[in-house]
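Problem: given the chain below (345 residues), write out its structure.
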Amino acid sequence: MSRILTEVLRAFSGITKCQQLKIHYMGCTRRYASSSAEKRTCLYDFHVKNGAKMVPFGGWEMPVMYAQQGVSASHLHVRSEVGLFDVSHMLQTKFTGKDSVAFIESLVVGDIAALKENQGTLSLLTDTTGGIIDDLIVSKTYQGYVYVVSNAGCAEKDLDHIKKNLAESQGKGMDVNMEVIDNGLLALQGPKMAKVLQTGLDFDLSTLPFMTNILATVFGVPECRVTRCGYTGEDGVEISVPADRAEELANALISSDAAKVCLAGLGARDSLRLEAGLCLYGNDIDEETTPVEASLLWTIGKRRRAEANFPGADIILKQIKNKPKSKRVGFLSTGAPARAMTGAM
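Solution.
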């Protein structure tokens, strides 16, 4: 195990206080500040029963780790076996109407029209200065609507931004409507994910490539949207499940005989995404960062660049041509681990 990963996991494994938690890793800082108004996901009682250490996070009470397995062990288990994460705090929305794709494209940089049915892509919600309001997964569905999953910490500002633009678009005659989906969201991640999940599916998982989705019955629970994606760098799926059946599905997954499925919390989720080099909103990208500066140029579709009709296009396209003054890059450290508030010259 690398020195970097060892230090990352050591930082997480030392957590003992839930009231206010500050975690440093690789120059990034996450703060879990207490509040009396935290919401709970549909799996809160499930987490408590399974020995979770709950912490305030982005307005929610979420599991950071479990008594049966510390963050280090959880991280390594996901890399070698399979882990189950509750990501029900994330915002799930759907957009209907014949102009739903055009409306979404008025907000993001991606070529959503080019997606096939039941295909998705990472895209960026940008403002008029080219800054990133949020990163999100946008998927077309066979049912004719656009399914979007965005960050829990950005939910309020995302909804405000979308609703404002939605009202303006509807006022101009566009046929589009938005609905917040009150489902649970489970992420099953790891090299043995397919072995576990296939036993409870009504379709062949090998027919579901990366970044595609399908509405299916999962371990007897109907109306689940299964998307092959994740935030760990491993093969995985995210399963949008009716909230009143989420605990039933979670229990079925951790009871699998196909492989040992362990519950994983926020600590392992962050260390896994860090090791995989995946962006974290608020640390690596924000409203002061453009897609070019974030090294996320690949999210901007060729057609969208040619049409230059996404928010902040003038600034972003100019950066593509002239190169930005700063850019997100990754480093591999061979000495002491990088700390918050430090940098490289």
